[in-house]
Structures are given as structure tokens and as C-alpha cells.
Amino acid sequence: MPREITSAQNEKLKDFSKLYRRKYRERTGQYIIEGIHLVEEALKNDAKPVSAFLRGDFGRCGEEKKLVKRLEEIGTELFTLPAALFDRIVATETPQGIAAVSSQPDCEVGHFFDGAAPDDNVIVLDRLQDPGNLGTIIRTADAAGFRRILIMKGTADIFAPKTVRAAAGSLYRVRFAYADDPAQALELLKRHGKKTVCTSPRAETVCFGADIAASSALIIGNEARGACEAFLRESDLLVSIPMEGTVESLNASAAASILMYESVRQHLILNKQ
Fold first, then answer.
1. Of 21, 49, 131, 206, whose CA is between 20 and 30 Å from 15?
2. How big is the CA angle at 27 (ends 217 and 86), to the nearest 5 degrees?
3. ∠164-262-190 over CA atoms, to 5°?
4. Which residue in 180, 119, 193, 191 sits closest to 153, CA to CA?
């Protein structure tokens, strides 16, 4: 049975609230998932929440009751809160009555290619800062069949609540790893046979004319400054996205989406031949 919490000074609740800050997520290896859909996605992908906080009226009917029962069955620690207190501690503007704490997956770079096929493609995120962009890229990568995302030091936290919401469950179906610098990333990618393809507005090769169907690592640079000089200098290929008018660059998630689906298009054509 869920235990009742009535005070914001409760230690469990204070520990939960701390996870909205990156340093506590990194210190504990945990993060927050909010809403029915994301908790269900966690369960579907065997990411068992450590604890869950329920608004007092949650779990009294239909799917909500089934979700609470499932959480009880797997041993998730459950707590109920008065509606006003619950709505105050969560980040979403329209809370759905449930928020859970989950453990972060293994993001060690040494395990990044475990189980990967030789022709799998990879996305590399170079110091992206917008959590919404990150979540959108993760979701698009999942949809496009990119199962691995390499994250450069200086990139925003993929386990921030806004990123988790924007990823919409895809966070559980993609493997992540962190790289300290471009040299480490390039060595890892080349050791596993990946052609490194870096976006640059100055590149002479347009992305639609580049071979990125398979075994490619697509490098997406910072929203304001683009990819770092080391990636621009050391990558196997630089590609641009054609643009008309006075637009100088695209949103990072839009650019990533174009490149990933161009890779999908090329892969589908090859399979038909």
C-alpha cells in the first residue's frame, strides 16, 4: 500500500525534488519521469522505477489502477500526496498525477557498441544546450533506427525533465555514452568502422549527395557555434544542408532529423536494389 506524505519537509519528497537539479541526478544516478505515458514506457522497457509519487486522487479507476498495481508488483516504493502538494513539486504545467524516480542506464563509453551490428549508424551530439532539442533528437533517432547516441562533454543533461518529456519514451530504446573530447570520440568511432560525417554550412558536399546509408556517425554541433574545430578538421566528411534565402542555419533537431532520414532513404534504396 502507498504511504502518505503530507508535508513538503518529508525527506523522501525533498530527495525527489533535488533530482530536478543536474548535480543531484549525476550524484545519485537517478532521474525523474512524469506522467502516465512515460511511466508506462519505463515499465515496457524494463526500466523499473525506484519510487513513485501519486496525487491523492490517482489510481482510483481504469488504467491508473492497473499502473499502480503493476508498480506494486515490481516493488516500486509508492507514496501518495495531497493534490496541492503534488502539483507544487512536479515540473509539468498540467500534472497527470504520477511522477517516478528511475535509475539512469549504463552510459559507459566502453559498452557503447555492445550488441551493435557492423552497419549501424550513430548520432554524435557536440555540446548541444537546449533540452527540447535533445529530446526531439532522441525521439527522431529512435524512429529512424539510430540506436546509439554519443554525447560530448558540455552537452546538456539528457536526463533533465524537459529532455525526458520531449523524448517521449524513446530514452529507453536508445543506448547512450559520454565522451570527454573529440579525440576520444573519433578514436572510438573509427575503431568500430564508422565513417564520421560532420555538419558544416561551409561544406561543399550536400548531405543528399553523401553516402550515409550505413556505418556512419553523424555529428550535430552546438546550436549557436556548430561543431567544434576538432570535428570539422578530423571528420571523414563534411556535409551541408541546402538552404535558400537569408536563413543561415537550421534548428539542431531539424538538421539532425534531415540527416537521419536521408540516411534512412538511402538505406531503403540500397535494400531494394
1. 131
2. 100
3. 80
4. 180
